[in-house]
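Dear support,

I submitted the protein below through the web form. The confirmation email said the job was done, but the results page showed an empty box. After a refresh the structure appeared. I'm attaching both so you can tell me whether what I see now is the final result or a partial one.
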Amino acid sequence: MLTFVGLGLYDERSITIEGRDALRACDRAFAEFYTSRLMGTTVEDLEAYHDVDVEVRDRAGVERDPEPILAAAESEDVVFLTAGDTMISTTHVDLRMRAEERGIETRVVHGTTAGAAAAAITGLQNYRFGKATTLPFPYAHGGDGVPKSVVDTVEANRERGLHTLVYLDIKVDHNPGKERATGDDEREREAFMRADYAADLLATHWDADALAVAVCRAGSPDPLVVADRLGALADREFGDPLHLLVVPGDLHLLEADAMRALGGAPEDVVEERTV
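What the results page shows now:
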């Protein structure tokens, strides 16, 4: 049995009760934290809170060498843990399909996602989000600025009046000192793109006057939502990760009120997008 469990957004307590029960009852627990991670905890705290040992796999250990996970699931009750919801990444879908092909029973225990939280915390209507995109660090895509695919996604959504959720790049095993890596001892090999850096990229290579919303630390005790023009967001500091951006399309009246009340958006910027 292979059970995929989403851990939610922030720490060892963000998991659902169903997920907690599955984790505590399993024979072995594997996890990956390269697609996303829980910023409010460590693997050690996760293990202590749930009284389990967690075997963390890197990208290669999940995508290219999943055999230890699959072999264990053939004879034991195995849980595979991810931050957020467990089926958001194609990596996890692929692992589940590999298990199914081998006749291994699978189950999914969902967790809260950053996308759901972004809609909830900003006041933007979740059914009015279009296709999401990920903004990579320039060095990661081998070019300068913003990939054309990111701009195309934002503009296509805006033409339809839809909002765009922009995930911000996370790099594991990264040399600190570049692109605002955290640089602390525990996570010195990780880099998390910040909302101000992302806003600066989009302001420089797309539209500095466009309305955007920085969503920071959703699911934590101190979340932050700031709505303004991209050029203005580029000059702000938003604190610890994880961050993402939302580029709104057309705003309905209630959404416009939310931009002002929840995000502190300037009146003139909101009026430009309100229909």
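Response: this is the final, complete result; the empty box was a page-load delay. The chain has a mean pLDDT of 91.
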